[in-house]
Amino acid sequence: MKASFDDTVLDTLFPGLGAIPPASRAGLDATAVLTRHGAVLTAIAAAAGGEAAFVAADTGTRAGLVETVGTAEPAAFQALVLAVSALYHASAPVVEAYGWVARAPQPRGFAVGAPTDEAEAAQLLEKVRARRQIWRA
Fold it and tell me: Which of 2, 5, 63, 116 has the CB geometry, 3.0–4.6 Å to 51, for a possible disulfide?
């Protein structure tokens, strides 16, 4: 039951929306994070009356239980959320759902927009041209 409970907690924290996947489908390897913050998970299970009860609860009830634990233990809860958030927002499925490229910037680089005409380029370079020389000749 533990894996299902962990996934349900993750999905309660990061449920996803539209094309953005919930945490359980984002390919997270959250085992170490969940182990490190096990006290918060234990508190969530206790508030629900057990892991199975939390998994069986409806979305609103689970959100309320998580909020209750977050209010009772704000520092520990925030540490859990921040750790999971870092994993979640760095996962390839989430990054791609945001419309970003989920690959290293090198060696291929990224496409960078260019001014559409000379007037736009002149406007963009106005501040650069206005400042004095900042290097030694």
Answer: 5
Say which DSSP state 99 is in: T
Vertex 108: Cα angle to 103 and 110 (nearest 5): 75
pTM as predicted: 0.73
Residues with Cβ within 8 Å of 66's Cβ and at least 6 positions away in sequence, in order, are 9, 12, 13, 44
Q: Calculate helix-pair angle for 74-90, 59-72, nearest 10 degrees.
A: 130
Q: Which amino acid is at 65?
A: L
Residue 17 DSSP SS3: strand
| Rounded Cα gap, residues 59 and 12, in angstroms | 7
Q: CA-to-CA distance for 1 and 109, rounded, in angstroms? A: 44
Q: Which segments of the chain have a pLDDT < 70?
A: 1-3, 137
Q: Residue 25 and residue 16: Cα distance in Å, rounded?
A: 9
